[in-house]
Design goal:
binds iron/sulfur cluster, 5-stranded mixed beta sheet, globular, 26% helix, Alpha-Beta Plaits, single chain, alpha+beta, Sulfite Reductase Hemoprotein, domain 1, 5-stranded antiparallel beta sheet
């Protein structure tokens, strides 16, 4: 579906040449029915009403009338009749929906909705750019990338191969804080604030989560700028790993550079899983074996 040299392209996928057709994007079950996993491209977990109407029509016409929403927000249409597969794919394709989101590749990019009231900054546009450049790229094992709009981390960035969290750098006005409410200290989840001689002080434990800013009614605390923190090597599954923080505060371009480096280094440094003759390590396992600094060098 994607031409590596010339960017994103929209040629019609054909059964038999779609990457890893069997038991991946399109799953043959019992030789008679297929489970068709689809998502919009280049973007990920947002579907238009027109696309949802197409999904409804396809599952009613060619499938069992059911749709499953996968954990990474792919839509799965189960039990599509094999003889109707070409027709189903064609209708999905016209609506901008493609098989994908399975196998040893960069999976569906997951982002928070920009309209969440807690969002520190929009993340969907950057998610779309990441999807365009890195989506579906072949990798040694699956790679998940998630963006969280704030430190509440609803999109589980800590248990994702590459987890990106929107954060906000805090500014503290030089004046004395006359109000003794101490709300900022109470809401800080990281114990990163204290009040000394009437002044609010922030220590190294500050993650730029921004929670204290909302708590302050006195204009002492303000949002200076927004950016991201990046975590590498988390995963879910039979064993759970938490990503390690790679960067401090970074901007959009640095996020792209970090993702590029992580994916390239993963391809170069991966080994077979212990005891396996063909299964390659997940990204987090490579990071665990080499250490994050050595992995990123
Ligand atoms: S992580 Fe923050 S922005 Fe994203 S859905 Fe949760 S509360 Fe909203
Ligand atoms: S929340 Fe604002 S007003 Fe209250 S102690 Fe903190 S800085 Fe001062
Ligand atoms: S930005 Fe978050 S971590 Fe930093 S001081 Fe405020 S509440 Fe604590």
């Amino acid at each position: 579906m994607k031409d590596r040299d010339n960017g994103f392209s929209l040629e019609m996928p054909k059964v038999g040449i779609i990457k890893g057709v069997l038991a991946k994007d399109i799953e043959i079950v019992g030789g008679k029915v297929v489970n068709l996993r689809t998502c919009s491209r280049p973007y990920s977990n947002i579907y238009s009403v027109a696309q949802l109407r197409t999904i409804k029509r396809v599952t009613e016409r060619y499938g069992s009338g059911k749709v499953h929403l996968s954990p990474r927000h792919n839509l799965e249409i189960p039990e599509v009749k094999q003889k109707e597969l070409d027709n189903a794919l064609k209708e999905l394709y016209i609506a901008g929906l493609f098989p994908g989101g399975a196998g040893a590749s960069v999976r569906n990019i997951f982002t928070c909705p920009d309209w969440c009231s807690k969002s520190m900054r929009p993340v969907q546009e950057l998610g779309k750019v990441v999807s365009t450049y890195f989506g579906d790229r072949d990798m040694p094992n699956k790679v998940t990338i998630s963006f969280a709009g704030c430190y509440n981390c609803c999109s589980r960035p800590h248990n994702t191969d590459i987890g990106i969290i929107a954060v906000g750098r805090l500014g503290v006005s030089g004046g004395r804080c006359k109000n003794d409410c101490l709300e900022c200290i109470k809401v800080c989840p990281f114990g990163a604030m204290e009040k000394k001689d009437g002044h609010i002080k922030i220590n190294d434990g500050c993650t730029d989560c921004g929670k204290c800013i909302d708590a302050c009614d006195d204009d002492i605390l303000r949002l200076k700028e927004t950016g991201f923190r990046v975590f590498i090597g988390g995963k879910e599954g039979s064993t759970v790993m938490f990503g390690k923080e790679y960067s401090g505060f970074v901007d959009d371009f640095e996020v792209m550079e970090i993702i590029e480096r992580v994916l390239n280094n993963y391809q170069k440094k991966v080994a077979l899983r212990e005891g396996s003759r063909k299964k390659k390590e997940r990204l987090g396992e490579v990071v665990e074996r080499l250490g994050l600094d050595s992995f990123m060098s």
